[in-house]
C-alpha cells in the first residue's frame, strides 16, 4: 500500500460514500468516527476519508496482521528484503501489541511521521529502535534496525556499501548517544543527541524515507 500515493489521490466525489461505509460496513473491526480521528490526528476529515478508502481497499477486514503488512510493504522494495524492517515497523504501529494494526493505529502513527513535531518524530523513532519496549535502546537493537534497513535498500545504494557498514554506523552513533557509557541509550539521550548532531538527525530521518 503506497500510503503517500493514496494520500495524494483526489477524492473523486466519494466523500459521502466513505462516510456511509464507516457507518454501515459490517467488518470485523469498526473504525472510530472520523470526527474523533480528526481530533486525535493532524489530518482533515477529507484527508481521513481518502486514507480510509485506501486502507479498506487493502485491508477489507478493517485491520492488518503482520504477514499482510509484510506482503504490502515488500511491493515497494523489490530490490531488497524488507521482511525484517517491516516486522519492526509493524510493531511500532501496533501500539497496543495485539498483533494487528487498525485504521486508528495507522492514522495516529502516520500523523506523527508526516506532520508531527521534531520531538514527536524522535519519540516515535525511539519506540521503533527500542525493539523489546523496555525504555532503552541497546547497541544490538540499533544494529538490528540498521541491518534491516540496509537489507531492505538492497543494491540501490550508491556507492555500494561494505558489508560491515551497518555495524560501523551503529558504533559511531551509539558512542555519541550513550552519554554516561552505561551500555544503553535512554530516550533523553536519544533526543538530545539527535537534536544536537546534524549527522545523527539526518540518519535518524532515514526511517521516514522508508515508511
Automatic annotation (TrEMBL):
Main location: membrane
InterPro entries, A to Z: EF-hand-dom_pair, EF_Hand_1_Ca_BS, EF_hand_dom, Recoverin
Single GO BP term: regulation of potassium ion transmembrane transport
Keyword annotations: Calcium, Cell membrane, Cytoplasm, Ion channel, Ion transport, Membrane, Metal-binding, Peroxisome, Phosphoprotein, Potassium, Potassium channel, Potassium transport, Repeat, Transport, Voltage-gated channel
Coiled-coil intervals, chain numbering: none
GO cellular component terms attached to this protein's record: peroxisome; voltage-gated potassium channel complex
Pfam family name, one: EF-hand_8
Name of the protein this chain belongs to: Kv channel-interacting protein 4
Organism name: Pan paniscus (Pygmy chimpanzee)
Gene: KCNIP4
Amino acid at each position: 500500500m503506497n500510503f503517500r500515493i493514496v494520500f495524494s489521490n483526489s477524492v473523486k466525489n466519494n466523500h459521502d460514500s466513505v462516510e456511509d461505509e464507516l457507518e454501515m460496513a459490517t467488518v470485523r473491526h469498526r473504525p472510530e468516527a472520523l470526527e474523533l480521528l480528526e481530533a486525535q490526528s493532524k489530518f482533515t476529515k477529507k484527508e481521513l476519508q481518502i486514507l480510509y478508502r485506501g486502507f479498506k481497499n487493502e485491508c477489507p477486514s478493517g485491520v492488518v496482521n503482520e504477514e499482510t503488512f509484510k506482503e504490502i510493504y515488500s511491493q515497494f522494495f523489490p530490490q531488497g528484503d524488507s521482511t525484517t524492517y517491516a516486522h519492526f515497523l509493524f510493531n511500532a504501529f501496533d501500539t497496543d501489541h495485539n498483533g494487528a494494526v487498525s485504521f486508528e493505529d495507522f492514522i495516529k502513527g502516520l500523523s506523527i511521521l508526516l506532520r508531527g513535531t521534531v520531538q514527536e518524530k524522535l519519540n516515535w523513532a525511539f519506540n521503533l529502535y527500542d525493539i523489546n519496549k523496555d525504555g532503552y535502546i541497546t547497541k544490538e537493537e540499533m544494529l538490528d534496525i540498521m541491518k534491516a534497513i540496509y537489507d531492505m535498500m538492497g543494491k540501490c545504494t550508491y556507492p555500494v556499501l561494505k558489508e560491515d557498514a551497518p555495524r560501523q554506523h551503529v558504533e559511531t552513533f551509539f558512542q555519541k548517544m550513550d552519554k554516561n557509557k552505561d551500555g544503553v541509550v535512554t530516550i533523553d539521550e536519544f533526543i538530545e543527541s539527535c537534536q544536537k548532531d546534524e549527522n545523527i538527525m539526518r540518519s535518524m530521518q532515514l526511517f521516514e524515507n522508508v515508511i
